[in-house]
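haha ok so turns out i had the wrong file open the whole time. this is the CORRECT one, sorry everyone. sequence first:
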Amino acid sequence: MRKILLAALSGFLLHGNYSQAQEYSYNVKFTVSKKNFVDSIPIEFHNGRIILKAFSGDREYRFLLDTGSSQGVIYENSMFNYVRKRGTITSHDANGTSHKIMTVEYPRFRIGSLVIEGYCGSLLPRQSNSDSHDAIIGFDIINKGLLAKIDIASGMLILTDNRRFFDREVGYVMKYRLLRWVPNVKLSPFPNCTDEARFDTGSRRLYEMSNRSCTTFSKAIYEFGSQIEGITHGSRTIASFGKEDHAQMAFLHLDRVMMGGFSFTDYHTITTQGNSRIGSELLNYGSVIINPFRKEITFCPYKDEGYYEVCNKQMDIAFVPMNGKASVGIIWEGSRHFRNGFRQGDVILSINGAPIDTFDLFLSYPFVEGYTYTFMVRGADGLIRTVESER
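then structure:
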């Protein structure tokens, strides 16, 4: 069940979509303590999250590196507190709803040997207590004029202001353009189809296609229909201001996804109501170099045969919060979970007799792969029933 739970949180931070600021405008005026430097910063890669240690005062914190966010995030009531408020901005979530957000200044902090001062981020509520990071660093660290190499095989984030430092690295190059200050690249999910996707390490899956793109491809190319293995209606992404609206989604089985000339074959994915995106799963297959001066993202595969056969399983069920409880946000009718009795809108009341009163309790439940669990659920019709389903 763990893979299912993590899928429910995919891309849950959609704060990178900024419109015109009212009192605070996007900038990279924060300072970095060194010039003409190369710094190797240890990172952890856990459950699709890039975590680096940060130090402020006499305390150690855990920061999430999220290239899909234009700037950082500090959580309300966090142990890592802000210095001062800097003004409000207007942000739009995946549903197109606008929200006023307070922007705050981080205290002086250090990552690796670099001391950063004047860094700003959004002040947002924490969506889940199961999150293991204290704050977020966004793509503004790159827009500042720093090249970055993310290499989870060596457990390192390399930052440098030397424009030519990575020139000898060989890989597959994708040009990007900044949309709302975050990188977007073009890829091909099917012959004669071009999609534009956000490079978003805050999202876990290798590739998610937007509903808009899926609809466009389906209408333009008859053969694309062979890539759709199921349709459902629901929501699965947890945004900063709640979950996505209920909408149609497609379960896809893509023959190949081509990124910069490198192909990922036999890949299962699902559409999303937000933008298409490339997530941190890409880092399982190779390192990534980001060059803000050339506006290039270079994928350097750990094993280069020009393609990688993924052969992953379809994400056939996802859970989202509903009035504080865990509920089935989407389910594929071809899945074993559907055959076992789960239905759209089911609210989880208990697991093996243990009450599940909150979404966080559901996320932290100690599921063991291969075990069958007894779920007590309340259906959309209000009736309570039991469902037995394996992890």
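The helical segments are 2-8, 140-143, 211-220, 336-340, 359-363.
again sry for the mixup
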